[in-house]
Amino acid sequence: xxxxxxxxxxxxxxxxxxxxxxxxxxxxxxxxxxxxxxxxxxxxxxxxxxxxxxxxxxxxxxxxxxxxxxxxxxxxxxxxxxxxxxxxxxxxxxxxxxxxxxxxxxxxxxxxxxxxxxxxxxxxxxxxxxxxxxxxxxxxxxxxxxxxxxxxxxxxxxxxxxxxxxxxxxxxxxxxxxxxxxxxxxxxxxxxxxxxxxxxxxxxxxxxxxxxxxxxxxxxxxxxxxxxxxxxxxxxxxxxxxx
Length: 243
Prior knowledge:
Layout: E1 3-14, E2 17-28, E3 32-36, H1 43-50, E4 58-63, H2 72-76, E5 79-82, H3 94-102, H4 111-117, H5 133-145, E6 151-155, H6 163-178, E7 182-186, H7 190-196, E8 199-204, E9 207-212, H8 214-219, H9 226-234, H10 236-242
Parallel strand pairs: 3-7, 3-8, 5-6, 6-7
Antiparallel strand pairs: 1-2, 1-4, 8-9
């Protein structure tokens, strides 16, 4: 299989505190790869370093065979990104922000079709700040898909969505995966991880605790559910019991 993302020995520290330590991973084409961990585990920092929106201390990163430090523009023509807390100007409509986003790319996807797929067709003329939290979250996933990317990074993609909306997003991402999209996501929802992810990596304090399939994570723990296995790997199960 072809690796669309390869990370070797990635390290990042802040003031002597190690945020990410020796991260190694490969993501194959048409794979959904999940990066898991509690708040502060190093997930968002890892993504920001991989994309070179934060400078990393050591390591090597290749996205679609390219170096994000020297080939940033070429990479972002072929990669979509949805950050956990995206920012946009206050007075802009859904349609306007989609038009602005599509103007950055040579061969963008049809954003009207994406809005329809994510249940936002009737929100085109609404101001982005007036959207509900769930609607904003879906919109930012749409914006990440407008480049018609080969690889998309989704940071807590269904945070704030109700159960039906989450499942609708999952179905659409599965369809895009079937068409060739590779997805790198972070999530706190274990049902989401089980439904979507081919492989996962669990982080704690910037250290890799596990990397492999969901089935492997469960089989290597004393539990039979991913949520319990995750808590076992991270030690959060013991922390909860001591409270």
